[in-house]
Amino acid sequence: MKNEKKKSDDEIRRLVIARLSALSADSMKSIGGEGVFTREQQIKHVEEGDEIGQTIEKIHMEWLEAQKEGIINKLYE
Amino acid sequence: MSDIIITRPEHDHATRYLSRWSEEIKKEAKKKNLDIVDLHKSKAVRKEFEGRIIKTKPRLVILNGHGSDTSVSGHDNEILVKVGENEEILKNRITYAISCKSAKKLGATCADRKTTYIGYDEDFVFNIKPKFLQKPLKDKRAAQFLKASNQVSISLIKGCTAKEASDKSKIFFKDALKKLLPSVKTDPEAREDVEDLFWDMNHQVCLGREDATM
Predict the structure, then answer these.
(1) What's the whole-number average pLDDT of chain A?
(2) pLDDT class for B19, splitting at 50, 70, 90?
(3) Which of A36, A58, A62 sits opposite B14 (nearest CB)?
(4) Is B174 in contact with A75 (Cβ distance < 8 A)?
């Protein structure tokens, strides 16, 4: 069970990093009180799995989960 | 007496964006002849903030700045209001805090049948085009987020209830997101903006007295 969770966490991490890598190099994001981060900095935080990286992952996954649940149709209702 | 107190620290990129985009709110308040106390830059400190609230008893407090789940900060991240220290100064009025996660505990602690706290229960995020770092008002990417956020304050100024104001803000987030949806497959930045707009929209909460008005 523990191994499966780790595998799942690793998969999510890889997915998020792949999505971040597609952004333009000068893309910047302000995340709460943590600061403003370039694409490379975001990738580093996700790789490290720290609090900022976890927030970035949560943002990506929340949208992906919502898509699975049909958010796009709901937005146009 | 004042109608509104707004804090506008400006000590880093994020606070500079929030501060400059808040000028839109000030213009709206002026149109309605509302008195607004502007705690800008080094005035956004605790002593000034507490003193002005006690003296002027504003109906609406707008907090720009960084935060945590228990506090909101001002200039140079000096804490302005914190659970267990001085959260009572937000009682019996409406607060809108664009300060990450503060709705989680600070907002939840303050909010009651006479007090409204509109804020975010997670980090507030927005994307920036680096070439506009010194000219935030020209940044159309950030504009999507900050115009939607501003709708809370602007709607309150126009007479909406707290719940209506939060709902109007969410409509702005939703509309910005819908405009980008056709591009998400071909434009990674559009996709990123959609995710972040969705996040902010979902994590904006209106706690306490929902029918409060200015």
Answers:
(1) 91
(2) very high
(3) A36
(4) yes
Nearest residue of B to residue A71 by CA position?
B198
CB atoms under 10 Å from CB of B114, counted, come to: 11
Give residue-wise pLDDT tens across range B151-170.
Answer: 999 999 999 999 999 999 99
- Cα B206 to its chain centre, rounded Å, is 12
Separation CA B20–CA A14 (nearest Å)? 36
What gap in Å lies between CA B169 and CA B147, rounded to an integer?
A: 8
- Residue in chain B closest to A60 (alpha carbons) equals B195
A59, A71, A72 member nearest B196 (Cβ)? A59
* Beta carbons of A23 and B100 less than 8 Å apart: no
